[in-house]
Design brief:
Elements lengths: L3 E4 L9 E7 L6 H9 L3 H7 L10 E5 L8 E8 L6 H15 L7 E3 L7 H14 L18 E4 L4 H22 L7 H15 L2 E5 L1 H6 L3 H7 L7 E8 L8 E11 L8 H4 L7 H15 L5 E11 L11 E3 L5 E3 L7 H14 L4 E6 L3 H7 L4 E5 L2 H14 L3 E3 L17 E2 L8 H10 L7 E5 L5 E2 L9 E2 L4 H7 L3
This protein binds ligand BES, manganese (II) ion and zinc ion.
Manganese (II) ion (MN) binds next to loops.
């Protein structure tokens, strides 16, 4: 995308393609009505014959409509007007862009629904940018092409357009990091990419290598890394947008660049998508990039724990007892419960950096997917008002998220006979919650929300508004939370 401009009159728009909306009660938006008038009632005719219904995400493509400058117009179903929100705007735009971007378009003009708030405009632009990028990183012939130019009609203001562009590009960054195959994306290469982003956007950064992690006594994270020939990394990036003496809010991400399960080896079918196990770290980097580009007026610290979980000769064993950075001892009873081992040490670093509040992101448990399905993020907390803030932000961006309980009873399941704590619950029941209870042991009472993104981080099947592969889930929600 080279730029974004506002302008009026859809039929006269100088663009290759137009996007206009239709409500499910058959009502045309003013822009759609203008196109309809110019075409002599083409769209109303389609509605009357129920060819087009306005059902949410229904796409109708009009080729070379007479009376309209653009060679192509897409009518996108907006669903019920009362239910239309920022999340719907994002999805509608992404669906339209997924369809339009199969051909090169030098300019696309979009006319949203009437009464657009700045938030809707930003989400619409973000959706357009996300919908133009496919998962085909390694295909010679690309199936999708970014629009040369995006134009937004109506009340769009420059700030909302710019915010949308930043959101969309950050979601795409997270998606791309996840979609990279594990041979290319491992702790060192992820760290390099993070440094690149830091340099480009002006984030302060540091990378802890193996030796530093040892000096810092990150025994829990290092134990996971031992089974792989790829050395681990901890990447720390900082955005200093607030007062110099203001302690930061911390974003912590699980960055297991491939999760084979370790000696508790996963069956092949469960392993096929495990390049996605660094999606938490990808969200952190993507949000930090957006925070820097949006110049958010607050201090943020992003911490990404990067390891590969492999069953090499030096791999941690079942029954091993690790000493985490906090000093707590952990009995390892399943090497496939590695995410919590990584996060134990990274959360401890966040606490040491005096984080006032923490959010962590992790593709942590299959149990969370069993509980909530593949579309919904699980939220766990030790501080209800901090969780309410996260839930509120998710509601505003339309990303499905549901809070899970944290009764003290669940903590009983991770008591060990020989160490302070063990890394699995008794059996598999409540596995998402026992995992969260484990993490809670390492936040030292800091207000904290854990987001288990194991379901929505990676789609195995496409949706009208999303491709297979990395989704960038929670990027928009957390930027919203931070007041972007
Ligand atoms: N990375 C997995 C969780 C996961 C599952 C992510 C499906 C995405 C999709 C995690 O490290 C894991 O293996 N968890 C185990 C925990 C168990 C051994 C206690 C699980 O969920 O089975
Ligand atoms: Mn695992
Ligand atoms: Zn994992």
């Amino acid at each position: 995308m080279t730029g974004a401009h506002s302008f009026d009159s859809p039929p006269e728009a100088r663009a290759d393609a137009l996007i206009v909306g239709l409500w499910s009660d058959g009502r045309l938006t003013p822009s759609t009505a203008a196109v309809d008038d110019a075409t002599g009632g083409l769209i109303r005719g389609l509605v009357e014959r129920t060819e087009t219904t306005g059902k949410f995400l229904e796409l109708t493509t009009l080729h070379a409509p007479a009376g309209v400058n653009a060679k192509l117009a897409i009518v996108i179903g907006l669903g019920e007007r009362a239910k239309f929100d920022a999340g719907a705007a994002y999805r509608a735009a992404a669906a339209a862009a997924r369809s339009l971007s199969v051909k090169v378009r030098t300019s696309v003009a979009c006319y949203l629904a009437e009464e657009n708030t700045a938030a809707h405009v930003a989400e619409f632009v973000a959706g357009l940018i996300v919908g133009c990028e496919g998962p085909d990183l390694y295909r010679a012939e690309k199936k999708r092409f970014s629009f040369g130019e995006i134009r937004i009609g109506g009340e769009a203001n420059t700030a909302a357009l710019e915010r949308g562009r930043i959101l969309g590009e950050s979601v795409n960054l997270a998606r791309r990091l996840v979609n990279e195959p594990p041979h290319a994306m491992y702790p060192e290469t992820f760290a390099e990419r993070a440094m690149q982003v830091a340099v480009e956007t002006g984030l302060a950064s540091e990378v802890w290598d193996q030796a530093r992690l040892e000096r810092e006594r990150c025994g829990s994270l290092l134990a996971v890394a031992r089974g792989s020939i790829r050395p681990p990394r901890l990447v720390i990036v900082e955005h200093r947008g607030g007062p110099a003496d203001e302690p930061p809010l911390a974003l912590v991400g699980k960055g297991v660049t491939f999760d084979s399960g370790g000696l508790s080896l996963k069956p092949s079918d469960s392993m096929t998508t495990m390049k996605c196990d660094m999606a938490g770290a990808a969200v952190v980097l993507a949000v930090m990039q957006a925070a820097a580009r949006l110049k958010l007026p607050r201090n943020l610290i992003g911490l990404m724990g990067l390891v590969e979980n492999m069953p090499g000769g030096a791999a941690m064993k079942l029954g091993d007892v690790l000493t985490a950075r906090s000093g707590k001892t952990i009995e390892v009873l399943n090497t496939d419960a590695e995410g919590r081992l990584v996060l134990a040490d990274v959360l401890n670093v966040a606490v040491e950096r005096k984080a006032t509040k923490i959010v962590d992101f992790a593709t942590l448990t299959g149990a969370c997917v069993v509980a909530l399905g593949t579309d919904v993020v699980g939220a766990f907390t030790n501080d209800q008002s901090w969780c309410d803030a996260v839930v509120g932000a998710a509601r505003r961006t339309g990303e499905p998220l549901w809070q899970m309980p944290m009764f003290p009873e669940y903590a009983e399941h991770i008591r060990s006979e020989i160490a302070d704590i063990k890394n699995t619950g008794d059996g598999r029941w409540g596995g998402a919650i026992t995992a969260a209870k484990f993490l809670e042991e390492f936040v030292a009472g800091t207000p904290w929300v854990h987001l288990d993104i194991a379901g929505p981080a990676y789609f195995e099947k496409p949706k009208p508004w999303a491709d297979v592969g990395g989704t960038g889930t929670m990027v928009r929600t957390i930027v919203e939370l931070l007041g972007g």
